[in-house]
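Field reference: sequence -> structure
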Amino acid sequence: MTDPVEPPSSPWVKWGWAFASIWLVFLVYPVIEAVTADVPVPAKVFALACIAGFAVVNVLGYSWWEDKVWLALLLMMALALAATPVIGMDAIGFTPYLAMLSALGLPDPWWKWATGFWLLVPTVSLLDLEGFPPFFFLMVWPVMIGGAILRVFNEREVEADRARNHFAMVAERERVARDVHDVLGHSLTALSVKAELAARLVDVDPARAKEELESIQATARQALAEVRATVGGLRAGNLEAELAAAPLVLADAGIATTVHGAVADTDPRHRTLLAWVLREAVTNVVRHARAGSVVIELGPRGISVTDDGAGVSGPEGNGLRGMRERVAGAGGSLDVTPAAPGTRVEVALP
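Structure field:
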């Protein structure tokens, strides 16, 4: 399966028919030659009709016949050859039009061979034929080479669009993976803690156990809604909601929470990111820290979460790695350091 690529945005391709129409002005030279040629009037009319047909087909090759470029080129060649007996060597002036249409319209690799052929044709001017200016090829080569350059630039643009689309798709997949990991990790951790608490209370405090079971149901429904929203790209972290939920999740795990600062102290540009960081940090504390207390600090430069648990050990997991990628994407830094005892996770943002 290939990535979808939008049509090239180059104006030379999008408005090729308009540029082709403008360049038809240079057909005035074969027209003059046809009018002044020492031939019968019917021959002059025939030559002028061939030149007019050449002009029309040339424009069609960039518009309605865009998918029939070979047909357009063959007709243009036939019309040019038909006019040659009247206009003589001036027929070589048709070659820039043929070269441009070949360069911009033919598929790869045919456009390279066709354009190269038309580049060679004007060199007949070196034969110093009577009535034909020498070094004529120096006049038409820049036009034909320009067509080849436009084709190369257009192909590079298509490749760049394909690469951008691919990278955007990869980035979106990574975003969904990170978000789903964070949502499920946090929600499943909360469900596990609440289930353990309900199991301990079912005999000693049935009413409280029932409340915890109802809370489990609400948390599960919320987790399902968050996963759906995350996959759809609709969910954004809410720092106020996460700051209110963190003490409750930690309390269910028997961990006390102290909060320094408020949401109003943080930079509004980064609150969504800080909400994800807080959620993942709290999830890690509940899962791994075996802590008794947690201190959450909010400020204009970012956030820090410090626990008094077992400390850092082992390689980084997916959650911490995803958190680091999010922070780096915003131009910030994430530091995980020992807190003696415990661990301090600190995010600094610009």
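Note: The domain at 236-350 is CATH 3.30.565.10 (Heat Shock Protein 90).
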